[in-house]
Every structure is written in structure tokens, then in C-alpha cells.
């Protein structure tokens, strides 16, 4: 049974594993598709401290959710504030063995609901161009392509390899 739970420090090890798996997967695909390298260790260390997690993803302007199936953490998603009325969906990831089971949809729906309850008027995201299944999911939820936005963490020299999307809330 799928449960969506808020992040708690007791889950830091599982969250770290998800972030590493997510970034390593993106790194491998980005290297294969575009000959672009992603700096996984620096990204992990920059975001996975108690202080960074609290700053980036704490209510009322942010959230960090974990998807759990039978006591196993199988996915995550986060929202953080970009501007007073605009948030960003980030770190959405589901382990490959649990894909196509509604986990990503559940995480996305909960993220949208949290953003709406926080009175954001729009949600943005960036996603690698090779992530076509994710693009379809976002399109199903009325995300549309936009130019790169202020606040994206994608370096300027790599932005052409990413797709940027927004949804009104």
C-alpha cells in the first residue's frame, strides 16, 4: 500500500540514497545523451544537511515528501519557494522497480495540493530533455513548456539539455 509521508530526520539515510540514485541516473543519461557531467557529490552535500533541508523544503513555503510502500521508501518529491507566489517542484524521483504504479502521480498530486494550500499561483520545474515519461506526466497535469526561469539550479551552459515547465495553480 502506498503512503505519502512528510520527511523526518529519521529518514535521512533513505532520502540520501534516493537523491544519490536520482542524480547518478541523471548523470549517466546526461553523459550518454549529451556528453554532459553532473556533479553528484557536491549537489548531495549541499542539500542533504539538516540546515539545508530545513531552509529549502520547510513549511509553510516548502515541503519534502517521501513515498513509502510496505515500509520501503520508494520515491520523493519536494517543493520550494522561488518567488513569493511561485514554487518549484524538485527532486521528484521514483525508484525504477516502483514506476508505473501511480507513485509519481500521487507525489505530483500531493505537491500540487500543498502548493495550492500555501497560496502559490504557479509551480515550475526543470527536467532533463531525455525524461519523456516525466514530460507526459507533467503535461497530463497541465504543465506547459516555458523558457528557463530565474532560480533554476541548471548551469547556463547546460540549460539547453533541460526542459522548463510551469502550471498555474
From TrEMBL:
InterPro entries: Acetyltransferase_Enz, Acyl_CoA_acyltransferase, GNAT_dom. It holds the Pfam family Acetyltransf_1. Residues 13-169 form the N-acetyltransferase domain. GO terms for molecular function: acyltransferase activity, transferring groups other than amino-acyl groups. It comes from the Bacteria. It comes from Chamaesiphon polymorphus CCALA 037. The lineage of its organism: Bacteria, Bacillati, Cyanobacteriota, Cyanophyceae, Gomontiellales. CDD domains: NAT_SF. This is N-acetyltransferase domain-containing protein.
Amino acid at each position: 500500500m502506498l503512503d505519502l509521508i512528510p520527511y523526518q530526520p529519521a529518514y535521512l539515510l533513505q532520502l540520501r540514497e534516493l537523491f544519490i540514485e536520482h542524480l547518478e541516473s541523471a548523470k549517466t543519461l546526461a553523459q550518454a545523451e549529451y556528453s554532459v557531467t553532473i556533479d553528484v557529490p557536491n549537489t548531495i552535500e549541499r542539500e542533504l544537511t539538516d540546515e539545508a533541508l530545513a531552509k529549502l523544503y520547510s513549511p509553510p513555503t516548502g515541503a519534502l515528501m517521501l513515498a513509502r510502500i510496505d515500509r520501503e521508501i520508494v520515491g520523493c518529491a519536494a517543493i520550494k519557494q522561488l518567488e513569493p507566489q511561485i514554487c518549484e517542484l524538485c527532486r521528484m524521483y521514483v525508484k525504477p522497480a516502483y514506476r508505473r504504479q501511480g507513485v509519481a502521480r500521487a507525489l505530483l498530486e500531493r505537491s500540487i495540493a500543498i502548493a495550492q494550500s500555501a497560496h502559490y499561483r504557479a509551480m515550475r520545474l526543470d527536467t532533463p530533455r531525455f525524461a519523456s515519461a516525466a514530460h507526459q506526466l507533467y503535461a497530463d497535469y497541465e504543465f506547459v513548456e516555458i523558457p528557463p526561469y530565474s532560480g533554476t539550479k541548471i548551469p547556463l551552459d547546460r540549460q539547453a539539455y533541460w526542459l522548463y515547465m510551469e502550471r498555474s495553480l
